[in-house]
Write a structure and sequence with these properties.
Number of helices of chain A: 4
Strand content of chain A: over 45%
Order of helices and strands of chain B: HHEHEEEEHH
Oligomer: heterodimer
Distance between the termini of chain A: 36 Å
Order of helices and strands of chain A: HHEEEEEHEEEEEEHEEEEEE
Number of helices of chain B: 5
Strand order of the largest sheet of chain B: 1-2-3-4-5
Strand content of chain B: 15-25%
């Protein structure tokens, strides 16, 4: 270690000759050098001898970066949220407190072009056969970066529809609960296994186009969530029918405008319901969305619509296999919302932002002839509340939700969310 | 007759066969420095004393890991090349400060998977003429970019650090 001290001392003396800024005292310099030596020691103790601590494309040596934390080729991040729902009508609904999500990101850089990303999620705190918690991989893909215009990802990735699906960390959206349109019409967090090409056409204009697994209408089991219950999440996904998707988004400071579409057959050659063999059941789901956030205002709107072909054959097959006459697949489902938020108060990293959102959605807008839609699936919800940011990445949320069709769901929500 | 999904798959495979890996380096830091001054002045070094480390830690949310900051200065102008992690990877940005105001900023190297829109001039122009307030905030609001929250936040922090370091270099 004395060699290290000597070398550092020589370096400091040499360096001092070329330094022309006004100097701190000698004692301060020695303290700083001692701190640097301690940092180097700690770094050496933590890292294997041949493990690089900077990315391969770090800036040129002349660009000394004094504020940079040590970076490994393997990275960890995460987000999570705690929620409390208090219903007005506790005869029908149970008040609940929940560790809704605990998510860890793991990434690894193989080289400047090839990286791995993953998102491992635990829901409801406990995962066991006797509990309702879930452990799931929401993303696990290899990203192959070529240039700004064309890049690839392959594996399990998020489908680029709507605003929430790809950006769903709690500090990035308003409301304790995610909006209904982007959970029931667009089934966020929606991921598929496949291959995607993405990049930019021009400054701010981003595209995604891909081929992936799709839905299996034989797995449909909840009309209140439209096509959501037929998603496969790359869990032994039936892949007799693949789907394609595309999205175009214009992102510049303060503005987002975009649209996306996903389409593919869902019959899956009758893999999960033999009565669907030979049935196409084409699903097409699309959306348009916009966001304006300049100054203190944050405005957002979205419309999404899905159509399912062969809805009569699918419904007949589902009722025959389940014996449930209410298992009616939608022929059309859609919804929209509009939202306004205003940054009322800011101090340093903290801010207080009230918001209001109105959304309308119908998970059975149309059903096949001869079947009846459940009127409770046609809902309008007003959500009003506020977000208090303790830090840009830590939020406290409170809101009230008023359901116009089924008022027994009216509730007060509290949430605590974070991301890093 | 191949289906649409088959055509997309075939197109991907064809494109990937022609793929050439490139780094996301938008400008060499050395070039950024030379452009700022016309020529490349000798680098100077700012020693980060304990109070300076504490202030930078307050801005960044973590202490600086290097305690001597290299910079370039000539008269009223100074240039700072800084790095900060947005979500997972460091973003390298250059700041030119003149008379205590940001003259211009540029993202030099971007390594994050999402949020590269922070490199657009339309975003970086917002930093022009920003100064540091008494509580170490930027004097003007910066509009964010949807889906790039953490990268925007990192650039804002770096801009504050650059202004603070410029102020510090002139005080000593």
């Amino acid at each position: 270690m004395s060699i290290l001290r000597t070398a550092t001392g020589v370096f400091a003396l040499t360096f001092g000759i070329v330094c022309t800024a006004a100097e701190p005292t000698l004692e301060e310099k020695l303290q700083i050098l001692q701190q640097e030596i301690d940092n180097i020691k700690a770094q050496l103790a933590k890292s294997p001898p041949q493990q690089p601590t900077q990315p391969a494309n770090a800036p040129a040596a002349g660009a000394n970066a004094g504020a940079t934390p040590t970076v490994s080729n393997t990275t960890v991040g995460g987000y999570g949220e705690f929620t409390y729902n208090k219903y007005r009508n506790t005869d029908v609904n149970n008040n609940q407190a929940d560790l809704r999500r605990f998510v860890l990101f793991f990434g690894h850089r193989f080289n400047d072009s090839i990286r791995f990303y993953s998102e491992l999620e635990f829901e409801h705190a406990v995962v066991s056969s006797g509990d309702r918690g879930e452990a799931e991989l929401e993303q696990a893909f290899i990203d192959y970066r070529i240039n700004d215009a064309a890049n690839f990802k392959a594996g399990l990735f998020l489908i680029p529809l709507g605003i929430l699906n790809e950006t769903h960390e709690p500090p990035t959206y308003y409301g304790v609960e995610r909006n209904f349109v982007e959970t029931r019409i667009i089934p966020s967090t929606w991921r598929e296994g496949g291959l995607q090409l993405y990049g930019e056409f021009a400054q701010g204009l981003k595209y995604n186009i891909g081929v992936s697994t799709g839905f299996d209408s034989g797995k449909f089991d909840d009309p209140a969530f439209a096509i959501r219950s037929a998603h496969q999440e790359l869990q032994l996904a039936n892949a007799n029918d693949l789907s394609v998707h595309g999205a175009l988004n214009y992102r510049v400071p303060g503005i987002l405008a975009g649209a996306g579409v996903f389409t593919g057959n869902t019959g899956q050659n009758g893999a999960s319901n033999a009565a669907l063999k030979g049935v196409s059941g084409r699903l097409t789901l699309w959306d348009v969305h916009a966001k304006y956030f300049r100054g203190n205002w944050d405005l957002q709107a979205l419309y999404a619509r899905g159509t399912l072909g062969d809805a009569a054959q699918i419904t007949n097959a589902l009722i025959a296999s389940s014996g449930n006459p209410n298992l009616v697949a939608p022929k059309v489902f859609d919804g929209w919302y509009t939202q306004a938020a205003y940054h009322l108060w800011k101090k340093g990293d903290m801010s207080l932002t009230p918001f209001i959102r109105y959304e309308r959605f119908n998970t059975q807008q149309e059903v096949a002839e001869g079947f009846t839609a459940d009127p409770l699936n046609n809902e309008r919800v007003i959500t009003a509340g506020m977000t208090f940011r303790l830090h840009p990445q830590v939020v406290l949320k409170a809101d009230y939700q008023k359901f116009r069709t089924d008022s027994t769901k009216d509730r007060f929500n509290l949430g605590l969310g974070y991301m890093f | 007759m191949p289906k649409l999904s088959d055509w997309v798959l075939i197109s991907f495979l064809t494109l990937s066969a022609h793929a050439v890996a490139l780094e996301q380096i938008y400008q060499d830091p050395e070039v950024f420095i030379s452009d700022a001054f016309g020529t490349r002045p000798q680098p100077k070094v700012l020693w980060l004393t304990s109070p300076a480390q504490a202030e930078i830690a307050r801005i960044l949310g973590h202490p600086p890991t290097q305690l001597r900051q290299r910079y370039w200065a000539d008269g009223i102008k100074s240039v700072w090349i800084l790095e900060e992690i947005g979500k997972e990877e460091p973003i390298t940005a250059g700041f030119v400060i003149a008379n205590g105001r940001i003259d211009h900023a540029r993202v030099l190297v971007y390594r994050e998977s999402r949020g590269s829109e922070v490199r657009y001039p339309s975003f970086l122009r917002q930093f022009k003429d920003a100064t540091l307030t008494s509580d170490a905030q930027l004097s003007r609001a910066i509009d964010g970019i949807s889906g790039a929250t953490l990268s925007v936040s990192a650039l804002e922090r770096l801009a504050r650090v650059a202004l603070y370091l410029d102020r510090l270099s002139r005080r000593q």
